Structure formats: structure tokens, C-alpha cells
Write the C-alpha cells for this entry.
Amino acid sequence: MRKEVRFAGFGGQGVILAAYVLGRAVSMHTPMHATMTQSYGPESRGGACEADVVVSDHEVDTPEVERPDILVLFSQEAVAKNLENVRSASLVLSDVDLVRLDGEVARKAVSLPFTRTADALGRRIVANMVMLGALTRASGLVPREAMEAAVAESVKPSTRELNLKAFDAGIRL
Amino acid sequence: MSEALNLVLNPEIDASQAGPHFMLGDHACAEGALYAGCRFFAGYPITPATEIAEYLSERLPELGGQFIQMEDEIASMAAVLGASVAGAKSMTATSGPGFSLMVENLGLGYMMEVPTVVVNVQRGGPSTGLPTLVGQQDMMQARFGSHGDTTMIALAPQSPQEAFELTVHAFSIAERLRTPVLVMMDEVVGHMHERVIIPPPGQIPVFQRRRPDVPRAEYLPYRPGSDLVPPMALAGDGFAVRFTGLTHDESGKAVTTYDAQQLLVPRLREKILRNREAYERTELYRTEDASTLVVAYGITARAARRAVDLAREHGHPVGLFRLATVWPFPEERLRSLHDVRKIVVAEINLGQVVLEVERIAGGYAQVTHVGSAGGRVPSAEAIAEACESAAQRSP
């Protein structure tokens, strides 16, 4: 089994942290293997930004993601950059308020209010954790407990509770 | 001087990081250095090696070590040589443009036989080139960049786990053979996160510098042992030591004659070539019946491994010869694969290590190259295709 996951959005939306949490959950809390790569340079500080995770039950050979099985979209620009992938992915998750998908979608498309839910929790910055909750439920790729542990380990202790609350809200969306 | 800088000569064992991590390749390299007892880093930040410096700037002070951000890479290289001469295990890390500046003092390190580790996280070049994208274009610069007939050692990790292990190993080689050792990483390995398991202290053997066992009056800093490596007294130990880039005799005194040169420089070469067991590391994958072989190192070896599987699915007996040690090239190990008639060298450059493979195997195997001018790892499919067309070509 090899699953390729791409998180695409703008720098500052927590796209890279989301990928890190998924990779960490797999590597530290399951017997599977994960490799995470990310965009570097100015784009990770405001422009279009992508982070990829390969999850595999064998050691990952090549870390490059060419055709993601799971695609997470946080901006309209990310859709434009991933048009082919939107059609070929087996699961597309997107923020309903930031992304419009016009018909060209894959087998399974889930549009949910990640950012709006985060706003309701008081901090827009946890929209990525809401999304990870939704991803956990929709994909079945990684056990919830593994993801929760990784969320807790990957954020500052002072924001742990808020991030876990956001993750839980995402599971229930 | 060592008091002034608080150099750590006998580092305390740090067990705090033992266990599994989800870790960046650059950070794994830095942890490898700490595991080996490195307590001095001098460097200048450069993508994609910055994370090594950044990480050590926090970890080294925690362990009582020294981190210095230097004015440039020329000074960085000089500083790690100085720290090592005073007895501290030292390292610097850079990428192509910085490595170009380091090669001058790197040569001084080879000539003065100073153990140290230099990491080059390779990106696309020439010049500032592709800061955030991968390359393996400095392999020949590593081999021949330093003037004057140097013989040197370079390792190339294929994963964050191996970045940790080979960096530990690089320190042991440097100390054992009294020479700078290069860790030739690449941007993808440096910038990827994977599971890294750091073993408890002591599980990976760490070689400590061999000190003189003769009375001070009899010590000659460049009189080699039977392995051609001279025991090394520390500056400040009370032994008379001299360090010069000029050709020197066993006392370290400059003697710029033909005869002194013939004693010194061939020994510097032989001490590397005769001690291959200290550093030579290769991996074979599905080579038992292989008549076609892929040779690869670093991140490219991972695509090559998959290429072997792809080519075999199409019925071609292909195997992988992976270089964890690239320089000196493990030539006897390559020659020992008697059935090989076709070799494909995959690397992210326009043809570097392939030249060495041609030299070694050109007489009995057809050698071809898969690569690019940098920016991307060759795909497994492209390597597999090259293997299949090589396999089908008439001998």
C-alpha cells in the first residue's frame, strides 16, 4: 500500500504543519512509514504552498508525489495548480468557503467549512487542525488516536487544548 | 586558547534524544554529529543546509558546546580546523556556493591531517543556481576541488536515518584516519522528514582520536603508525606540535624539497587507500543474477531501487549497487560483480561519478548515464527505461 497525500494552499494557513502532523502520526504512532516533503523558499511565507506526505506499509522508496490519492485544497489557486489531480484523486477535501470546485471533481469530494469552524472556536489559525479531523474521518488512513497524539505533540503546550478541540470539531463536521 | 573558547574536549554522553523521531534530514545529520561527540560547529547559513546550523545553534549550547556563526565559509573551515587541532570534534555544513569557498582550507585540513567533518547539502548549480532544489553536482568538486593531488573520503546518505548514521560514521573515520571527511547530502534528503531512530549512546561505535604513547621529547607529530596514520597530540597538551600547509617532515617542520614531498604526499594518499575497511560502505540489491547494474547514491539510489523492481517486472535481470561511500570509489566491490555487462549510473548531474565507473568497468561493461542538470530526482521509470534499453543493446 502506498498513498500519496498533498496539502495545498497559501503559506500561513498551516499547510506544512498539517502535513507534518500526518507524517508524525504515521511514523511515531503506527507501524507504517511516512515521508514528508514541502515547498521551500518565499512561497512557504505567503505565496502558493504545498506539502506532500507519502504513507506506505513498506519503506517509502521515492518521496516525490506526482498523482496524489488524497488532495486537500485550501485555496482557489491550489485548485488551478492541481487541476489534473483534482480529477484523478480518489478523495478531494476542500474548504467550502475558500474553494469552488466546478464539476471537474473526482470520485469523492468533500467540501467543509474548516476556516469557518476555526473562526467559531476563536482562532482561524486552527483551520488546519479542523481539516485534519475531517481528513482522518473521510480517509480512514490513520487511526484517530495516532492523529490526536501527533497533534498534541506538534503544537505548543499552551495551544494544545485548542488544537485538539479543533481536530475533534473536524471529525464531527 | 582552549580556555578562552571553552572547547569541550571530553564531551559528556547525551542520551536525551535516544528513541524514535519524525525528523528532518538536516536535523538528523546534526544529531549524528552530537552523538559522535561533536561539540564545535562553525558555519555560515545557506539553503538547504541552514537547518543544520539552526538546529545546532540551539543544541550545542545545551550540551556545553560551541556554535559560531562565522563571517563566511572560508573562515568557517578555518575555525573547525582550529577547534579540532585543539582537541574538539568539529563540523561545518554548507551547500555548493559555500563549499566552493571551503575547498581552500579543506586542502589545508588534508595536508595538516586534521580530523573534521564537512557536510555539503547539494543543490542545483553552477553558482547560486537552484537554492531550494536538488543537485548532486558537487561530487567531482568534492573529489578534485582541492588543489595538489588530494585523496579524500566522501559519504552520501539516502535518508534522514542514514544522514544520522553516516554522520556518526564520518566522525569516526575522520578521527581514525586523521583527515577531513565529507558528507555529501542532497537537498531532498536534507529537507525530507522521515522516521529516525536514534540509538542509545554507545550502540554505534565512536572512534576516539589516537593520542601519542611516547614521551613528550620523542614525539614527532607526523611520524605515522603502521596504518600510516600519525597519533595526534593536542595543541596545548605540552607536546611540541607544528601545523603548516607547506610540505613538512615528521616533526612538522616545513621542508620544501622533492624528497620530503615524496615521503609525505604519497603517504597521505596511501593512508586513505589502505584503510578502506574503515570507511567503505556499499549496498547490493537484487544483484545475484544481475547482468545489468544501476549505480547510484543519495536520494537517487531510492529511485534506482524502485527502477530495479520495475525492470525486473519486465523480465530484465537488473540489480542495484548503492554507494554510501562514494570516494574513494569502492572499485574492488564493483569489479567483484562478475556477471555485470551493462551499467547505468544514475545521478543528478550531467555526468560525474559515471566517469569513475567508466574508468573502472569500461573494459568489460557498457556504461551509460541517467541524469539532469539538477532540480529534480530522476524518476524510477526513466532509470528503469535506461536499464531496459541497456540490457537489450548488443554487447
Observations:
- The domain at 282-392 of chain B is CATH 3.40.50.920 (Rossmann fold).
- Residues 160-177 of chain B form the longest helix (18 residues).
- The interface with chain A takes residues 20-22, 47-48, 131-132, 188, 191-195, 299, 302-303, 305-306, 377, 379-380 of chain B (CB under 8 Å).
- The mean pLDDT of chain B is 96.
